[in-house]
Amino acid sequence: MAKSKYEYVKEFETDDRMLRNVYVLVRIDGKGFHKFSQTHDFAKPNDVRGINLMNHAARCVMHELDDILLAFGESDEYSFLFRKSTDLYQRREAKIVSTVVSLFTSAYVYYWNDYFTDLKRPLYPPVFDGRAVLYPSEVEVKDYFAWRQADTHINNLFNTSFWALVEEGGLTPKAAEARLCGTDSKDKNEMLFTEFSTNYSKLPAMYRKGSVLLREQIPKDADKDAIIPTLPETLPGSKSAKVIPAPGLQSGPDPISEPASEAPSGQSTPISLDSPIVVQETVMQENSSNSSSEGKKRSIDANEAEQQDVEEGPAAKKEAPAFKRMKKGVVIDHIDIIGEKFWTGRGAYILAPEKKKKLRS
Ligand SMILES: Nc1nc2c(ncn2[C@@H]2O[C@H](COP(=O)(O)OP(=O)(O)OP(=O)(O)O)[C@@H](O)[C@H]2O)c(=O)[nH]1
Ligand SMILES: [Mg+2]
After folding, report:
1. Acidic residues bias: where (predicted)?
2. Which-ligand-closest: CA of 36?
3. For an engineered disulfide with 323, which of 46, 92, 142, 219 has Cβ 3.0 to 4.6 Å away?
4. Which residues have a Cβ under 8 Å from the Cβ of 1 and sit 6 or more positions away?
5. How many C-beta neighbours within 10 Å does residue 358 have?
6. pLDDT at residue 266 greater than cutoff 90
7. Would you state the pLDDT for residue 20?
């Protein structure tokens, strides 16, 4: 076909294909969410409706883009890690970033009323920006997520202390800030406990640790939304996310070891691991009469499970609950991703070596 005389303008486009064989990390962040949260009367310091809506929007992104292995969200931001060998849009940066941002933002607005049930739609359109960062090795990927989760911890402890002083203690914001100036984590924990009877480590893990989206095995017949558990105290009354208030999801005693002194934002802080909430096992327990043994079957692969159903026959099938038939799904949890325990455990699949794929020439 003959080219039009105007077609030469295409030559002005820049080639923004990102380097191959490195991890692609896309982070989105709400623009002016300080004002947005005030305008929409978000609870301070954490609005459970807002957090669950962010989580829902992030899930939509993961459902759409299979190459995302892991996502982490806190406050008004979400990070998405793509597998090293992703060939999505031939790794063109603008296409990838704009797709993530656009899908996230439209889902945020689309599902708004499921969470903010008394307001049909946001009072003005929320805006998110996005960027892509390339990480050459597993070391930087782990440190990246440690950085974001340490940030969650530091900000949340500060905000919890700040709003306790203002809302319960009657201090002005300025006085509260002055009171917290120079304090470390231990001081804040102590203040919350002695002055406001708040045991910080017992606050919902979703506030303290952020939200982690993983790809794991889920029951084959599970509705992709139904598998998303939420802390009982965070039930948003969502219509689209059928929340399972699983018994194992209460925020129990949580021996998080606080950093000795406040690290500046951006510096990894040694936070110890507590017992993670194992979502899959919780779901299984709900369906199972023998929870402890059934819980161990969480790693059964979909084909393997179907095969077992066939081999074991109808008698075995009667005893075996339906969830033996598994598929990969997106699950949400609020666990420590700082430290090796996560990366060698539930997160092991994320950094596992990929099968060699022929690269496009
Ligand atoms: N009250 C309340 N505020 C929240 C919540 N989540 C996020 N925010 C607000 O969103 C802000 C997010 O921080 P930033 O991204 O640094 O602030 P921003 O106003 O979005 O600024 P830019 O990202 O630079 O545009 C927080 O400082 C809070 O003011 C929430 O659950 N409750
Ligand atoms: Mg922001």
Report:
1. 303-312
2. 1
3. 219
4. none
5. 5
6. no
7. 97
32 CA from centroid of ligand 1 (Å): 7
For 326-343, write each residue's pLDDT tens digit.
Answer: 888 999 999 999 999 999
> What are the residues whose beta carbon lies below 5 Å from ligand 2 (ion)?
29-30, 33, 76
**Does residue 70 surpass a pLDDT of 90?**
yes
In the structure encoding, which two tokens stand for residue 208, read together? 């303290």
Sign of CA dihedral 221, 52, 278, 101: positive
8 Å CB contact between 218 and 329: yes
Whether the bond into 236 is cis, omega within 30 of 0: no
Residue 30 in marked binding region: yes
Q: Write the DSSP assignment of 290-324 as a string of letters.
A: SHHHHHGGGG--HHHHHHHHHHHHHHHHHHS-GGG
Q: Is 46 in the pocket of ligand 1 (CB under 6 A)?
A: yes
Q: From ligand 2's centre to the CA of 253, what distance in Å?
A: 31
- Is 161 within 8 Å of 150 (Cβ atoms)? no
Higher pLDDT, 31 or 267: 31
- Strands (E) in the chain, as ranges, are 23-30, 68-74, 77-82, 128-135, 211-219, 326-333
The response to whether 32 counts as a known ligand-binding position is: yes
Q: State whether the beta carbon of 158 lies less than 6 angstroms from ligand 1.
A: no
Report d(CA 290, CA 220) in Å as an integer: 19
Say if the ipTM goes beyond 0.95: yes
The number of beta carbons lying within 10 Å of the beta carbon of residue 242 is: 12
Residue 124 in 3-state DSSP?
Answer: coil
Residue 315 has pLDDT above 80, yes or no: no
Token pair for 260: 């000795």
Tokens 């979502």 — which residue? 279
Place of tokens 């077609």: 7
- The CA distance from 275 to 273, in Å, is 7
The pLDDT value given to residue 328:
86
- What gap in Å lies between CA 116 and CA 322, rounded to an integer? 34
> Taking Cα atoms as reference points, which of 110, 354, 62, 42 lies closest to residue 211?
62
What is the C-alpha to C-alpha distance for residues 253 and 203, in angstroms, rounded to an integer?
A: 9
Q: Is the pLDDT of residue 163 over 50?
A: yes
Mean per-residue pLDDT of the chain:
79
d(CA 65, CA 347): 18
